[in-house]
Amino acid sequence: xxxxxxxxxxxxxxxxxxxxxxxxxxxxxxxxxxxxxxxxxxxxxxxxxxxxxxxxxxxxxxxxxxxxxxxxxxxxxxxxxxxxxxxxxxxxxxxxxxxxxxxxxxxxxxxxxxxxxxxxxxxxxxxxxxxxxxxxxxxxxxxxxxxxxxxxxxxxxxxxxxxxxxxxxxxxxxxxxxxxxxxxxxxxxxxxxxxxxxxxxxxxxxxxxxxxxxxxxxxxxxxxxxxxxxxxxxxxxxxxxxxxxxxxxxxxxxxxxxxxxxxxxxxxxxxxxxxxxxxxxxxxxxxxxxxxxxxxxxxxxxxxxxxxxxxxxxxxxxxxxxxxxxxxxxxxxxxxxxxxxxxxxxxxxxxxxxxxxxxxxxxxxxxx
Length: 368
What we know:
The chain is of the alpha/beta class. Among the domains are: 2-117 and 156-194, Rossmann fold; 217-247 and 299-367, no CATH class. Helices cover 50% and strands 8% of the residues. The chain has 17 helices and five strands. Strands 2-3-1-4-5 form a five-stranded parallel beta sheet. It is elongated. The N and C termini lie far apart (83 Å).
């Protein structure tokens, strides 16, 4: 019997890169007897086969059913033995949604799902980074954790059980999203290995991360600059900086430990069931340098300023930085003069920006 592999994510586990990889290597996959489904493929993914996604865009369950029928037609009319679809929205499918997938397709294919699991604290931090980076009303990271807990997104045993209760225990292919644990040292080789493609050497890999992660400092500073000047280039602000710096986490070590303790038992169950080990993930390690702190306590803003000072066409960003520093100086000039003086020293590096303000602030710091 033929096999359909449904890559269900989760999100924040390299899904976009993997989808691009599979689409880019469709011909090589075909030569191996595998086919990355083309029906309703959009942006290299298959969200439209996912009822959860369809509901998000105000489509009905009947629309999803029709899409699954179109998928069935492509499989029936194909000579391939193995098929792949991918969407990080599949974890939001409920048991009824999964049952509908099975009812449409199980007569023509054996269905297996591939699931990558990321340590819950890292998953939350990555999700929160995406929310803050998008400029949406983010609330606090504790609010996000509560939402994800309520929706059971962090309970991986519940997620696996929801799918296996319909498709059977043998349908589950569970992988760790832990880079030092990947087969072949990358997620592309790891995924191919998980679906029984032994040799990944002929496949073309991605040259550029399609969804590069940004460090906390760059996200927060970028949002502050956009607040001051919404017309700034998002591409410039959201491109990872080229210089090295010590970044901090969104969650403190204590918050990480508390969150992981909520899933200690279910994580251990998955570790024993699917990996024959005692622990599912390598536990977090305390590092005082990574603890959350005010971004202006580090030199990141100064380094960001200097980077753009010596780049062409950076006048708008430098102007926004100057306005931000002027705000920070005004905020601290009476209560924290040493901090205000630091911001003045940074502002003074921008010869053509706020020169009058620099002199004024210096006088206020020294003589008031």
